[in-house]
């Protein structure tokens, strides 16, 4: 294990902001993960675990402790007829794994194409997009308990998946370090085409689109919305969707009824389980006056999607937070809804 000091974190995140980590370890084996945990505990150091840096906002002061970057690699596939399981190390690139599954003609995660980050991060937030969530395919998560230093295996129910939540970012937040994930996929299964933009894409296509076609369509849609990280794109430095889509009760939706007509536009809402409805955070942001391309110094909003806060070049974490606070305050004042950020905030 190599321990480095004063490693700047900004280049390791997609937002490209943030100060240094006092100590930094990049672990490529499970043994190194354990060594890093022991190093932090022996020195009484705060520990932050990161993967691909795609869902982080690091403070300008950095992190006064140990940042552990989990870079474990390896993918193992097992076949049982049409059932296929993949055991994937936490440090594997997520989109590369999706590409492999699609190439193997295995369905279940094709709509999660183009999402940046590593495999180990996906169970934490129950990553989802375009009609799929990873919770629909995760069979087991192997994680190191930071308290007991023992390996624990979580089955799907143990993970307590919900909308952008799991046991790993709620009741047991910061307790476990995910080492590997087992996914259960199916060969020969039809792709998922529930999302409206996907249905529109294939409306004139004769026959069933292939998994590869759906993957390509998802990536194209993400690119059109500035949610596909492409070098040279003016909106490339973002953390993706900065706010979660609010989930409200039927009573709350009725309370919001007076806002349903705003400038001729109808507030979008979608079923989210019995008695619950999901609202569009992007719609709320735009209706509160934050248009695509909005700028507040070096921080701004993507030119392609109102939900992505971007670093236009040289932005500080403080400027990103100030813009997020302004958006939250205005949406709260206008609609009475508190937007909840998606990225993890690291440092003071």
| DSSP strand content | 25-35%
CATH architecture of the largest domain: 2-Layer Sandwich
Average predicted local confidence, pLDDT: 93
- Tally of separate domains: 3
Return the structural class.
Answer: alpha+beta
Give the helix proportion (percent range).
Answer: 10-25%
- Largest sheet descriptor: 6 strands, antiparallel
CATH topology of the largest domain: Uridine Diphospho-n-acetylenolpyruvylglucosamine Reductase, domain 3
The total strand number stands at: 23
CATH class of the largest domain: Alpha Beta
C-alpha geometry: globular
Number of helical segments with 4 or more residues? 8
Distance between the termini: 27 Å
Low-pLDDT sequence parts = none
Spatial extent as radius of gyration: 20 Å
Kindly describe this structure:
The chain folds into three domains: 4-70, Uridine Diphospho-n-acetylenolpyruvylglucosamine Reductase, domain 2; 75-224, Uridine Diphospho-n-acetylenolpyruvylglucosamine Reductase, domain 3 (2-Layer Sandwich); 238-346, Uridine Diphospho-n-acetylenolpyruvylglucosamine Reductase, domain 1 (Alpha-Beta Complex). The protein contains eight helices and 23 strands. It has helices at 30-42, 94-103, 122-125, 196-201, 211-224, 250-255, 281-287, 317-335, and strands at residues 4-8, 20-27, 47-50, 56-58, 63-70, 75-80, 83-89, 106-107, 128-129, 132-133, 138-145, 151-155, 176-187, 238-241, 247-249, 261-262, 265-266, 269-271, 276-279, 295-296, 299-301, 308-311, 344-346. A hairpin with a 4-residue loop joins strand 18 and strand 19 (276-279).
């Amino acid at each position: 294990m190599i321990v480095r000091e004063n490693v700047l974190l900004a280049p390791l995140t997609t937002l490209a902001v943030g100060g240094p980590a006092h100590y930094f370890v990049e672990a490529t084996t499970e043994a190194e993960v354990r060594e890093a945990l022991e190093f932090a505990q022996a020195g009484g150091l705060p520990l932050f675990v990161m993967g691909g840096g795609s869902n982080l906002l690091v403070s300008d002061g950095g992190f006064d402790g140990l940042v552990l970057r989990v870079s474990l690699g390896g993918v193992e596939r097992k076949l049982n007829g049409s059932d296929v399981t993949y055991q994937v190390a936490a440090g594997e690139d997520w989109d590369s794994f999706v590409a492999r599954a699609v190439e193997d003609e295995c369905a279940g995660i094709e709509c999660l194409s183009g999402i940046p980050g590593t495999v180990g991060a996906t169970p934490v937030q129950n990553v989802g997009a375009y009609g799929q969530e990873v919770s629909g395919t995760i069979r087991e998560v192997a994680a190191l308990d930071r308290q007991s230093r023992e390996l624990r295996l979580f089955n799907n129910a143990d993970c307590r998946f919900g909308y952008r939540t799991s046991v790993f970012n709620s009741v047991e937040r910061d307790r476990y370090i995910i080492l590997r994930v087992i996914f259960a996929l199916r060969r020969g299964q039809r792709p998922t085409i529930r999302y409206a933009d996907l249905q529109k894409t294939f409306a004139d296509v004769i026959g069933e689109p292939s998994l590869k076609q759906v993957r390509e369509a998802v990536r194209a849609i993400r690119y059109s919305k500035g949610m596909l990280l492409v070098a040279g794109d003016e909106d490339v430095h973002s953390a993706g969707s900065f706010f979660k889509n609010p989930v409200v009760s039927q009573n709350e939706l009725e309370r919001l009824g007076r806002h349903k007509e705003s400038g001729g536009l109808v507030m979008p809402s979608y079923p989210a389980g019995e008695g619950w409805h999901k609202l569009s955070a992007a719609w709320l942001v735009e209706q509160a006056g934050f248009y695509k391309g909005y700028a507040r110094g070096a921080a701004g909003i993507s030119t392609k999607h109102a939900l992505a806060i971007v670093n236009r070049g040289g932005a500080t974490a403080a400027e990103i937070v100030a813009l997020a606070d302004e958006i939250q305050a205005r949406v709260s004042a206008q609609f009475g809804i508190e937007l909840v950020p998606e990225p993890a905030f690291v440092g003071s």
